[in-house]
Amino acid sequence: MRVSMRVNGRRVTAEDVWEGESLLFVLRERLGLPGSKNACEQGECGSCTVYLDDSPVCACLVAAGQAGGRDVVTVEGLAGAAGLDAVQQAFMDAGAVQCGFCTPGLIVQAHYLLRETVDAGGPVPDDGEIREVLAGNLCRCTGYEKILDAVRLAAARKAAAAAAAAGQAEPGQAEVGR
Amino acid sequence: MTGTSTATGPRTSPTTSGVGQSAGRPDARQKVTGEFAYSSDLWLDGMIWGATLRSPHPRAVIDGLDIGAALRLPGCHAVLTHDDVPGRKVYGLEHADQPVLASDQVRYQGEPVAIVAADHPETARRALGKIKVSYTELEPLTDARAALETAAPRVHDGGNVVRHVKIRKGDPAAVAELVVSGEYQVGMQDQAFLGPESGLAVPAEDGGVDLFVATQWLHADRTQVAACLGLPEDMVRITLAGVGGAFGAREDLSMQVHACLLALRTGKPVKMVYSREESFFGHVHRHPATLHYEHGAAADGKLIYVRADIVLDGGAYASSSTAVAANAATLGIGPYEVPNVRLDCRAVYTNNPPCGAMRGFGAVQACFAYESQMDKLAAGLGLDPVELRVRNAMHEGSVMPTGQVVDSAAPVAELLRRVSGRPLPPAAAGTDRDIRGLPGGVSNTTHGEGVVRGIGYGIGIKNVCFSEGFDDYSTARVRLHLIGGEPAADVHTAAAEVGQGLVTLQGQIARTELGVEQVRVVPADTSIGSGGSSSASRQSYMTGGAVRAACEQVREQILERGRGLFPGHEDLSVSGGKLVSARDGALAALADLLAEPAEATVTWRHRGTSPLDPQTGQGDAHVQYAFAAHRAVVDVDTELGLVKVIELACAQDVGRAMNPQAVEGQIHGGTAQGLGLALMEEIQVTGGKVRNPSFTDYLIPTILDMPPMKLDVLELADPHAPYGLRGVGEPPTISSTPAIVAAIRAATGLALTRVPVRPEHITGTGPERDA
Q1: Which of A27, B52, B202, B513 could potentially form a cystine with B551 if both were Cys, beta carbons 3.0 to 4.6 Å apart?
Q2: B565-599 tens-digit pLDDT
Q3: Are B505 and B390 part of one and the same domain?
Q4: d(CA B247, CA A166)
Q5: Could you tell me which chain A residue has the CA closest to the CA of B708?
């Protein structure tokens, strides 16, 4: 079958897709976007997390046909013309990347957390919220400490930037949530 | 970072990302943007997909194999069996005993029997379904201790004992005032790296093959692959593809020979990617162990003797069982001074899944047993568990039960004091707590009622580098040249970056030694000499040592050029991209000395080791010892048997923190894997069959399972090691497990002799399986 969708803002079409293929397989093997990872392919590890119409999903659990006509954003689509997304930059700065196989899924999921909190004008998430939202993303290298550091750092930077943009930057705000 | 460094500083001034600094990973940007090419991401025009047919039985005779229907399937390009292996039919790290494809029998569930290549993974799966194999099932041998009995069926012709290591020290008949004994069990743990076994084999015009694969040791792969393909080694060229974690599971071959066979047969590039379920059958696991220990001590707590008997279930093939057994034996009494030791460790063949390397490598199993014994002894003496350990702690100058003198820092007592001296997390209070911090979490199983807090300690010992006289080396080529008029260093080794940060460290060393900022770490491949394995916590030591040695030779070439250009300046160095005189400061830009590139290739070895005496286990078998200690604080829901680890504190001596951020990452990650073994991780095998080959049923710690971790990193330089460093990766995995179990014991008063601890062990509502 033929599957057309928007991926990272671009209209794409995959030909000769077998009906049993997942969105993950089509992204990785037919559309040249292997950033979403194939660690378990049964929805347990979160390494293939992508946005499907603005909701984070495991791409391995979505049949390719279900994605037809819809909007997909993968880790490859998060960096903008201005550079890396704040979450990507924070993962680098905090040392949250080791082997990196969990990283794309964690970055999309953490991006979602911050979109729903700081970006929406809310407070920075506390550790309990961060842990709950990232509970579906397995990492085998880091023990999660530096992943927590990275998400706290990205949240603090976003909050500081938002405060600065609003012309009311307060000293110390960037440390909230540490 | 705390502690003091007595390491000699680099002879050149540090750059902003040199040795000792938290330099960022050179591959981090690619990894956060999804552009980093892992072994499962590779793609070539015209490539086809390989797949593996595996035995459903743990022990069976193969009566017949019919591949006709599979071959006739449209889209199927090849079906290969044992008869199609052109070279050596078996492979193995230490003994070549494992068939590339099974011939007349299978010895474990999941053993490869046939391979196919097809135009789509689904076609390949259907082709596997059309292969007809006739098996006569046999009763599998699944009990490691039963395998030792003379009447037991033999898994291999040579008998069921892979290796028996004996340690004999002092008086075998020593007696003591207080004696405690116990039998302990360790379940089968999986490395559970996230990046599945995978790679791409590309047939070459010369009749050879190029393989891009995730592995821990390119040259060991090549030796085995070339032998099985019947090709000279120079016709098998292996390049490291991106590695999604390793932890020991990529030491043995998985799909390497299979993909190459299919590529050579079809003339097409062949990609193989294991599913998670297949991955559980596609690599070796941590040896399950049964450990019987008897400790004798004087009334003051000083250990008088340890007697121990350890049986490791090696499963169907040898893998690295011989080395695992040596570690469990030589490190088997822990970091303590004991005058009289009698220890036997046997690794045996069974029809269970093959076991081999996993982070900690034999030291993990022993540590759970000896630390459990130390707690038991402390209780018997009425002593604080930390105090008992401190009274028996080894130190620099202590003698191992092998007779080897520990000739660098062994701060066992200090590490214990560090973790025990830390402030405790706030006490649990009342029934109005945030349930996210309670056992069971948001499952809402308790609001604090029935929850008891416990504190426990563990300390472990690990060898670093390869042991027992093994010729352990690494090779590095460093080339200093001009790129766009600026000096830049290329560093080339065959050492595998598996996530640990070796690729970062190589750049840090080159920057520090050569005084340049621009360093490129060339992709690892077999066009250069071996880098040895990314295991045994050895790569910072070995490949770090090789890169430093190559840099020193390159630097000497530059200084020689400088002495020619500036006669009379004897005290020259390189720093900040300049040639510097101690007397007159900067003399010239390095660029001015690099009209010709400077290059050196060095093969670097650690100091030699000795084999163990086969009767007494005496010998200077190890290169370096490393130590870590943990304190665990847990809350236990005694009604449901659920455990919440509240905090883990770790103290570890790393000799020199080459990259402090990466060191912390190793300690965090190692500690997490030890928590997994303590509380949740076990491949459950019944009748030789794996019952839980998925991340649904084999649980690894999530971010909700991991507590905050408090670290104390000591830097007590080892004068024998490059930069004074001590291997970091394994020690934290070893001591976190017993610390957590000790904390559960402290909370519940239960004996808990088996890991992972399960809820029914705590509630007493179910049988202790195998216990």
Answers
A1: B513
A2: 999 888 999 999 999 999 999 999 999 999 999 99
A3: no
A4: 48
A5: A145
